[in-house]
């Protein structure tokens, strides 16, 4: 029986350039494609040369933060990647704004142009939370679940070649004033979960009570406004 391969192209034992490739029974799925925000130029890319990008069938983007999506225009416009790309509507909308700003502010070492970005975004397809996408020709189906964290962020539950994989991306179980917390995915596909790929950057850290963080934030805003009256 063919073994599943999970290849960390970035984000393994580091914070930044999240990019994972899962290969199983002839299907290849990339999960996120970010840049390392503390590095510049080509050094910020995931290790894309480790895999044959032409054979990657699908890319699933969990949310719009730079370390999860900022490599996307480079992938689509500067490599031989030709797979389909899926993300939620809010992720696509905010990605356009953030990456346009990134290109304009990093002109010396930017990896792609605004034109590259626009061509890239035209290739991105939308998926809603709780929507199941079935790609029978690949033996793949996947479903998006709310991840909390930021607007539009989602987890992806995949079934590929009969195996079930849950990729969380960044998630937060805490509700706040504008987002519900991450949900525990139900399993619309028969059988139990086989593989869990989970974000763990803050797995052993305490962020403090939401009320305290809100008070610090509003206090800082009030101080700045008061200084500029």
Your description of this structure?
The protein has 229 residues and is of the alpha/beta class. Helices cover 24% and strands 23% of the residues. The chain has five helices and eleven strands. It has helices spanning 66-69, 72-78, 89-105, 114-122, 210-227; strands spanning 5-10, 19-24, 27-31, 58-60, 84-87, 124-126, 132-135, 140-146, 154-160, 163-167, 195-197. The strands form two sheets. The protein has a six-stranded mixed sheet with strand order 1-2-3-4-5-6. A five-stranded mixed sheet has the order 7-8-9-10-11, with no helix packed on it. β9 and β10 (163-167) form a beta hairpin. It is globular, with a radius of gyration of 18 Å. The model has no long low-confidence stretch (mean pLDDT 91).
Principal-axis shape equals: globular
Number of beta-strand segments:
11
Rounded radius of gyration (Å): 18 Å
**Biggest sheet character:** 6 strands, mixed
What labels describe this entry?
six-stranded mixed β-sheet, alpha/beta, 11 strands, globular, single chain, 229 residues
Brief characterization of the structure:
By secondary structure, the protein is α/β, with parallel strands linked by helices.
Task: Summarize the SSE layout with pairings.
Elements: E1 5-10, E2 19-24, E3 27-31, E4 58-60, H1 66-69, H2 72-78, E5 84-87, H3 89-105, H4 114-122, E6 124-126, E7 132-135, E8 140-146, E9 154-160, E10 163-167, E11 195-197, H5 210-227
Parallel strand pairs: 3-4, 4-5, 5-6, 10-11
Antiparallel strand pairs: 1-2, 2-3, 7-8, 8-9, 9-10
Helix pairs in contact: 2-4, 3-4
